[in-house]
């Protein structure tokens, strides 16, 4: 019996020496070891049988421990390589998306005043899409929270476009443009002033339809 306890003691010491093993399995495996060894002692009182049992538990424990470590390492490698790939993915910047907004803002005006309502509807949809993209790709910029300022203006324009009401369109377009500049002021970008366009910057696009 004394031999058995000594062996048990050294085995536990040996297993605990592997810090990974101790972190992941120590208490469960240790209890299993004690339980199974106590049971075996009651059954056989035979030291030789106990020795075999310890060896089996030891081999099993070390084997499962190695498999676990290999899996964890493989997962870590995958995470690291995904991180590298993600850092290389193109993400449109705030300024780039604002230039996009500027283009659709201008096109919307010429579509509206030419009563090309289908194109106007399309441009409103594009403006909303870019707004969504800013909210998606520029989440970390605090300015992004203010993007919702455009919603009331866009809603009014949508209403005017769907009923083909030119006066309401002009009014709501002005309301939208004021909201653009309000946000520029709030974001210390007050020197960037947008306005109702005078001439189309897109000479390659026809806004008037028959
Ligand atoms: C959330 C607040 C906000 C709203 C709303 C907003 N902007 Fe901007 N805008 C900015 C910020 C911030 C920048 C500076 C971007 C940067 O850091 O490059 C900017 C930049 C711009 C630029 C400068 C691009 C350049 O390179 O000259 C234009 C043009 C512009 N916005 C147009 C508009 C128009 C048109 C609207 C309305 C339909 C609008 N913005 C609505 C915050 C806003």
Key terms:
disordered N terminus; mainly alpha; Four Helix Bundle (Hemerythrin (Met), subunit A); binds heme C
Summarize, please:
The protein has 210 residues and is mainly α. The protein is built from seven helices and no strands. Heme C is lined by residues 94-95, 98-99, 101-102, 105, 143, 146-147, 149-150, 176, 180, 183-184, 187, 189, 192, 194.
Description:
By secondary structure, the protein is mostly helical. The protein contains seven helices and no strands. The chain is rod-shaped and about 100 Å long. The site of heme C has 20 residues, from helix 4 and helix 7.
How many structural units, i.e. domains?
2
Question: Order of SSEs, N→C?
Answer: HHHHHHH
Share in helix: over 70%
CATH topology of the largest domain: Four Helix Bundle (Hemerythrin (Met), subunit A)
Q: In this structure, how is the largest beta sheet organized?
A: none
* Shape field: rod-shaped
Q: By helix and strand content, what is the structural category?
A: mainly alpha
SSE topology sketch:
Blueprint: H1 2-17, H2 19-44, H3 47-88, H4 94-113, H5 117-137, H6 151-163, H7 166-186
Helix pairs in contact: 1-2, 1-3, 2-3, 4-5, 5-6, 6-7
The protein binds heme C.
Heme C is lined by residues 94-95, 98-99, 101-102, 105, 143, 146-147, 149-150, 176, 180, 183-184, 187, 189, 192, 194.
């Amino acid at each position: 019996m004394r031999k058995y306890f000594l062996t048990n003691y050294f085995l536990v010491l040996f297993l605990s020496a592997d810090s990974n093993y101790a972190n992941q399995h120590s208490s469960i495996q240790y209890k299993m070891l004690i339980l199974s060894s106590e049971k075996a002692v009651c059954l056989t009182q035979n030291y030789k049988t106990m020795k075999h049992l310890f060896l089996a538990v030891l081999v099993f424990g070390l084997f499962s421990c190695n498999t676990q470590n290999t899996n964890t390492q493989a997962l870590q490698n995958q995470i690291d390589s995904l991180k590298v790939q993600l850092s290389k993915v193109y993400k449109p910047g705030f300024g780039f998306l604002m230039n996009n907004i500027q283009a659709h803002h201008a096109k919307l005006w010429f579509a509206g005043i030419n009563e090309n309502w289908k194109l106007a509807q399309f441009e409103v949809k594009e403006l909303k899409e870019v707004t969504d993209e800013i909210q998606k790709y520029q989440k970390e910029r605090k300015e992004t929270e203010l993007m919702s300022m455009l919603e009331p203006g866009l809603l009014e324009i949508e209403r005017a476009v769907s009923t083909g009401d030119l006066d309401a369109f002009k009014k709501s377009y002005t309301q939208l443009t004021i909201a653009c500049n309000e946000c520029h002021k709030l974001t210390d970008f007050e020197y960037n002033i947008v306005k109702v366009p005078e001439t189309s910057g897109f000479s390659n696009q026809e806004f008037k339809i028959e």
